[in-house]
Amino acid sequence: xxxxxxxxxxxxxxxxxxxxxxxxxxxxxxxxxxxxxxxxxxxxxxxxxxxxxxxxxxxxxxxxxxxxxxxxxxxxxxxxxxxxxxxxxxxxxxxxxxxxxxxxxxxxxxxxxxxxxxxxxxxxxxxxxxxxxxxxxxxxxxxxxxxxxxxxxxxxxxxxxxxxxxxxxxxxxxxxxxxxxxxxxxxxxxxxxxxxxxxxxxxxxxxxxxxxxxxxxxxxxxxxxxxxxxxxxxxxxxxxxxxxxxxxxxxxxxxxxxxxxxxxxxxxxxxxxxxxxxxxxxxxxxxxxxxx
Length: 292
Hints:
This is Universal stress protein. This protein is of the alpha/beta class. It contains eight helices and 14 strands.
């Protein structure tokens, strides 16, 4: 088994590589750097154009490996690192193929800096893989750096659903296995139109407080039922926006936030709901999306 990280020269940058190194150290496994370059469509064209494209693609793959080696040299000491290259019309499909070939345990993707109020931007490649990958997919926040080793804490997003409970159990088992503390956290966003204007802000606040109390009771039940250990930190965070609720908790260096997906039986393997998508976009720490 190995940790697979997608990388292209001057495309994703360091955050994905840093996170992948931390994941490999935590899981005590190897690291595979995967580069997928575009493959031309089989349409008639001038031979010179085809040759130029093939030359560009070959140089892109070589530059990506050389750049990744340069960055990883001082970071990945003691970790076995291998490189895989692939041409495919779909970058996402190419990465999925490599994950299957090397028996990838987790797929790491860097994120693009987001404009406006979000922390991360989910591109088309990441979006496809978040829905279709058979293994957990980690999205590394822009600017993420870990120099000292593996992960230091796992936070698990809990929404009281059956799928979310399964995620909590998996997170608890992983945290125990890798010797990191666990925090289970529930987020609630009131929104601008949570209740009709005639209800009033004070009534909204009291209802939100009552909901938060119920959410904390649900979290406490996780300990009573043995889903998590007694030393697990439980937290309920409320606010007026996703940016606010994701910025409120205390995040430590080397932390990862896990969220789940809902399994589906149609063309795609899972459904990434609006809630999880917003958590990914606004999370200040890397997010691990675990298939349902």
